[in-house]
Amino acid sequence: MDTTDKDAPRVVYEGRYQRMVVRGTWEYSERTHAGGLAAIILAVTPEDRILFVEQFRVPLQARTIEMPAGLVGDIDAGESIEASAIRELEEETGWTAERAEVLMIGPTSSGASSEKVAFVRATGLRKVGEGGGDGTEDITVHEVPRATAAAWLVRKMGEGYELDSKLWAGLWMIEHELDGTPRAP
After folding, report:
1. Is the dihedral of CA 6, 7, 8, 13 positive or negative?
2. Label partner for 15 (CA 20 to 30 A): which of 45, 162, 181, 184?
3. Is residue 21 part of a domain?
């Protein structure tokens, strides 16, 4: 691709967590923290319950159902994806994990943002607190039996909740290896 001065990125706004960039005819957002990466955590309790979080999201002006997630490197730029995922899991849900495994990394919305998301499988879960997020968040934790999780999500959608579409990819990754083979419980 030929890049000329007219195609050089131009920052038109920068805030604490995001900046708006114009490059040629494209307008998009970038994360301002190290790496521009978020982690979505696939977490199943020893009782075979999937952890979901509910919170009000200002851009949507609605309550959402999501898997626990957070920015990588927003507190410590040197923090690994795995360590960040375990920290966010504990902060949001009150559960910690012995291990975290990055399954894949990909763009969240390639036409609107440079941000990428890492799907991280957390295993060896243990309850250590109440969760609910940090002092600026109001997160409700839902522990939903794996066998009824998809139906529960559809019901929540019918109740007017916004559902992060990555939930469906996360459910698939809980049940399968990346090559499509079923995953042992």
Report:
1. positive
2. 162
3. no
